[in-house]
Amino acid sequence: MWDYLDPVARLLDEHARVVRWDQRGCGRSERRGPYTVARFVADLDAVRERLAGPRTVLLGHSWGAHLALRYALDHPERVSHLIYVSGTGIDADRGWHPHYERNLRRRLGARLDRWEALGARDRTPAEEREWAVLQWSADFADPDAGLRHAEEMATPWLGLNRDCNRAINAEVKRELREADLTARCRALDLPVLIVDGPEDIRPRWGVDSLHQALPNCSRVSLAGSDHLPWAENPHDFRRAVTTFLDAMA
């Protein structure tokens, strides 16, 4: 996708200078690989060096939470705090995706048939946008409000990079199976905040092993929120993040 974190930046603008970017191959950035985790870590480092200085706070959401964690593991001296929002954890043995698929279908409700029909065929750009809006609407606890939020996320529509999505997802799955991320997390000596929404259709127990592995970690569950907790509980999201940063100042 493209950058959709403008609401997060606005919540934190009075507390911090916020830097965002469209990741490689996505949104307004050039669609040019390679699409690898290492390349995305290097891109993040280039953004940090150019715009954020020698050390920075990293906040990552969903796939971005994994990217932020990987960056912190590779470059801990360049990160002051890590904020891990709605990630899916590091436990390869307790697969979360089947639970997500079931919860997604349940949450879609009356929109399920249309979503499945669109997903079963080649789509026009307009249909691709409709399919994405339907799927994203399930990432909010309130289905009607979710549709409105999803429409806002899809405007302007900058298109999805399927090649990037497939390549990164496949590599992350391999990494979780083959790399000992748990041991690396145990050695990560910097403050970490995990932020979850209890209504997230991705099971929150997937993050338990990450929470347990990190030596300096706190975790906040924001009532009434799903995968994008700042959208459904902005007050508590801002309070959790700013309190964490103030405590570690």
TrEMBL record:
Signal peptide (UniProt feature, chain positions): none
GO BP term, pick one: proteolysis
AB hydrolase-1 domain ranges (all copies): 8-125
One Pfam family matching this protein: Abhydrolase_1
Molecular function GO terms recorded: aminopeptidase activity
Domain of life: Bacteria
SUPFAM superfamilies: alpha/beta-Hydrolases
GO CC terms, sorted: membrane
Keyword Hydrolase: yes
Keywords linked to the UniProt accession: Hydrolase
Family classification: Belongs to the peptidase S33 family.
Protein name: Proline iminopeptidase
Organism listed in the record: Micromonospora humi
